[in-house]
Design brief:
There is one protein chain. It contains 13 helices and five strands. The protein has 301 residues and is of the alpha/beta class. The protein is 50% helix and 9% strand. The chain has two domains: 1-31; 36-52 and 63-296, 3-Layer(aba) Sandwich (Rossmann fold). Helix 11 (233-246) links the parallel strand 4 (211-215) and strand 5 (250-251).
């Protein structure tokens, strides 16, 4: 009898541990999309760049701890956003959106990208996409929006977000490149750029009348840390910015603009971060303002 009880206890323990492990894995997948999908794309599509992606852990000198001075955020980060959308420069993306909304009654927008677009790190309703859509409404530009989290370009190809974006038939597609995920996972820069090219080709062919705007991913806590390939996050951002401009894409370097604003205010990047990789409410407001200013003051599609 004792032997039967011991066997039963052991079996139940195995079942419990299996269920617990499965639950933890499910929670991890719900909390953030699988950035390693970008690596799998590179491994299964070597023709895209001639190199396979490599796996790796956390970049050297990097951690996911909350920044120590995150409480000293920038003041009045979003005080001029609506005004810029209300008074867009001729030929700007915002001017085109206003005209389109006036003619069609509503514009369709797809926001495709990282956890930043999902608002991770901010309190509910204070993500930069939330603020942007609210400011569009305040500027009387009626819009319906779809948010798709692709994390990195390669995962967007594999997981179907690009196809979903095309099926939505949007007037405007805003894409965050996912450079931070590629950097953290040691995906070769050439592979990252090849994935962006693939997305650009699919969107331009399927949506010839849509405006497509490219954005970098936001600042992170330690931008001088190197990954397993010996590259900094900035190296990825610089490469994609050069590439986007060489291709004639509308690439808005919000990352550089936000860092410049912080420097002008005498603040460090930690002032706008909820943790090592995600913007807090102040950071989201600053990112939204910078984006709205860029599309209103001459960024043409």
């Amino acid at each position: 009898m004792e032997r039967w009880q011991a066997w039963t206890l052991a079996a139940l323990t195995v079942v419990f541990m299996s269920v617990l492990a499965a639950g933890e894995e499910h929670a991890r997948r719900l909390a953030s999309a699988d950035a390693a999908a970008a690596i799998r794309y590179a491994q299964t599509h070597p023709e895209a760049a001639g190199l396979n992606g490599t796996t790796g852990g956390t970049p050297e000198n990097e951690s996911a701890q909350t920044p120590s001075d995150a409480s000293s955020g920038p003041m009045n980060a979003s005080t001029t956003t609506v005004a810029s959308l209300n008074n867009p420069a001729p030929g700007s993306v915002a001017s085109w959106l206003a005209s389109r909304a006036s003619a069609e009654g509503r514009v369709r927008i797809v926001l495709l990208g990282s956890s930043s677009i999902a608002g991770q790190g901010a309190t509910p309703g204070h993500g930069w996409a939330d603020l942007f859509l609210k400011d569009l409404d305040s500027a009387h530009i009626l819009a319906s929006a779809m948010r798709l989290g692709m994390v990195a370009a390669g995962s967007g190809v594999i997981n179907g977000e690009v196809t979903a974006a095309i099926r939505a038939k949007p007037d405007l597609v805003v894409i965050e490149t996912g450079a931070a995920a590629d950097w953290a996972q040691n995906v070769p820069v050439t592979t990252s750029l090849a994935n962006l090219d693939y997305i650009a080709s699919r969107l331009s062919q399927a949506l010839p009348d849509a405006r497509i705007v490219w954005l970098p991913t936001p600042p992170i806590a330690n931008e001088t840390a190197v990954n397993g390939s010996g590259l900094t996050y900035k190296a990825y951002l610089d490469a994609e910015a050069r590439h986007a401009r060489s291709q004639g894409w509308t690439y808005l370097d919000l990352h550089a603009a936000v860092l410049a604003q912080l420097q002008a205010q005498g603040l460090t990047v930690n002032a706008i971060l909820a943790d090592a990789y995600h913007l807090n409410d102040d950071g989201m407001a600053m990112w939204a303002k910078t984006f709205e200013t860029a599309i209103s003051e001459g960024a043409s599609g």
